[in-house]
Amino acid sequence: MTRRSKLLSLVLRHSPQTIGLQLDAAGWANTEELLACLARSGKAMSLAQLQAVVASCTKQRFAFSEDSRRIRANQGHSVTVELQLDPSTPPDALYHGTATRFLDAILAQGLQRQKRHHVHLSASVETASVVGRRHGKLALLRVDAAAMVADGHVFYCSDNGVWLTDAVPVAYLQRLDA
Questions:
Q1: Do 103 and 64 sit in the same domain of this protein?
Q2: Which residue, 16, 31, 57, 132, is most buried by CB atoms nearer than 10 A?
Q3: Which terms does the UniProt entry file under GO BP (predicted)?
């Protein structure tokens, strides 16, 4: 299941061309075409296996369209897509988990989107902690989202509850003890 989920992340977020897949402007792929491209590239997956990956992903990284004819990653793309999310008002505080080795750069430059479309933030300390631990020794940051909104910054909430924004300047960051 993990291997299939990582493969879907690769092709739906970063490199659809590795299997000859084409995403539309909003990041959607035709489900049948995805399965055919996977099979042609020697990575065959059945529709039932694909549905199981989507259903079992605790982070809800992927979503089917209402008719299940299309599938996409909810966020985290490094390829150009327009997720068509409407601006949303976030909770007053959001959180970002990272590795301590990145902390000096973040505290000097703020949170930058790097190769992705947005900075990813969590509504809970627990979720941010899980994300941060994946990258090494945890450093946890609190984002003053209320102040950012008051200062004109825009936020979006992806279908799986990840908060997105273009950048978080240093002035809105506070380090928390992990």
A1: no
A2: 132
A3: tRNA splicing, via endonucleolytic cleavage and ligation
